[in-house]
Amino acid sequence: MSKLRLGFVGVGGMGQMAHLSNYAVLTNECEVVALAEPRPQLAKLVADRYGIPKVFHDHKELLEKADVDAVVAAQPYRRHSILIPDILRKCIPVFTEKPLCLTVEAGEKLVALGEQSGTLHMVGYHKRSDPAMEYAKNVISEWKASGELGRMRLVRVTMPPGDWVGGADKPLDSGEKCLPLDWEPYSNEFGEAANKMYDGFVNYYIHQVNAIRFLLGEPYAVSFVEKSQVLMVGQSSSGVCVSLEMSPYRTTVDWQETLLIGFEKGFVRIELPAPLVRQRPGRVIVMRDDGKSAPTTLEPTLPMRSAMRSQAINFIAAVRKERPAPCIAKEALEDLKVARDYIRFLFPSR
Prior knowledge:
This protein has helices at about 15-25, 40-50, 60-65, 80-90, 105-115, 130-145, 190-205, 205-215, 305-320, 330-345; strands at about 5-10, 30-35, 55, 70-75, 95, 120-125, 150-160, 220-225, 230-235, 240-245, 255-265, 265-270, 285-290, 295-300. By secondary structure, the protein is α/β, with parallel strands linked by helices. It starts with a strand and ends with a helix.
């Protein structure tokens, strides 16, 4: 099969470190043929570094003049509702970072537009592509299907802040100032304080909100939020307890994100590396204890491949229709609804 021709919209820090550097090495699967970046000096630096032949000022010019099979739009999420519609109307598959956008209302419009055009919009929840998460998901699915470990009872995620860069190289930087841009406005439902808290929540914890549903394999709803904003508790559609522990402590030179999936007769524990760590997967521990034989603990050896690299591979495969994308816009919309409910608990209407 011929290589996919990719266009990049935005090559700032995250665009380079999390995305462009991973697609650039997948030389058998794709080639980056165009980029759009309003900072001309930065655009030239990046294009020269990665051998990208065509450079444009913005996404509209790229869509008009470049021949691309898919677009990676590495943009801040409050830009998604402004520029992604132009890509979807061109029926070009697109990848964006998490979350889908800022508000539920804008997210609903993006989902509807993508469904009307029949265009893939993959949202970058890279944790789903971590080999540790993929392994754990398979184990959980097997246990649920067989029933050998009893009922699934708990999904708990603990996410203290830490060193999220994980030693990644610094991106190219021209020193140019960012130009003034349009941003998605805050929701009319909340006041200023609530909107700022909502914005912070979807920025820092939406990955974990999404990971809970991924591991559950079913929807869940928020049922309690502790007022100090350390704990959010919910319940899945089948009655599984879920909890998200936010910033119970901090680490300055480490990343200690953990996920625990409890069954009646065993558990799966996942330890994830820093988001930008280079070519290192998470760690999985699987414990079985049926009460009849000696308990067993397994820690599989996983491929030395980072979640970000795997995510790039998964997007290419989804564009080619070789397998479904790990997370599309319609499911990502559910994360914004959970975030909205979280804020509603903290700021109840009177």
